[in-house]
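Researcher: I'm preparing a figure for a lab meeting and need a structural model of a single chain. I don't have an experimental structure, so a prediction will have to do for now. The sequence is pasted below. Please return the structure as tokens so I can convert it later.
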Amino acid sequence: MASHAHSTPAAARSGTLRGLFRLVAVAIAALALPAAAEDTALLVQLQPDGHYQVWHAGDPSPLGDDELLALEASATPEGGRNVVTSAGLARAYDTSYGVLIRLPALGPDRALLLDRDGCGGIKVWQSQGTVHPTEDELTELVLTALPEGGKPVTLGKLRAKAYSTKFGVIAVIWRPTPKRPGARPPK
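Model: Understood. Here is the structure written out token by token.
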């Protein structure tokens, strides 16, 4: 008789539900973050040249929802038509890792990356943010990332946990709470 990871249909459903709950937890952690610099998320993508592209979450988008949806609809691999937005002209590119929106009026390197969560909601990542890990810290995040979250990593005074996703590594970042004097470490 062959050995199976799930010996009963109930066990199979339980394993599937656990995986689904993990995915939902990652999405909620990445989407529902306070705006403070020490409580945020990064999307880290390895580029063909070996460097990392870092996208930041947490800050309000310079574009409204209607503008984002219009740009997403106009995106092509070569770049859609230029669209007049509240942040100046913008152009959207359909890429393998989401819709890239260039915002040249806000600066030469200003861009947004749109991706969709499992429920169809739009997640907006920005090319600029307040947390800037070093190359070594980014490498550690990428190497420790797991679908269910890797081991916590120290980034200066901050902590991070990295999750591997289809678009790259999402690092959830927080400022640890100070230990109370006389408190016992967890067992």
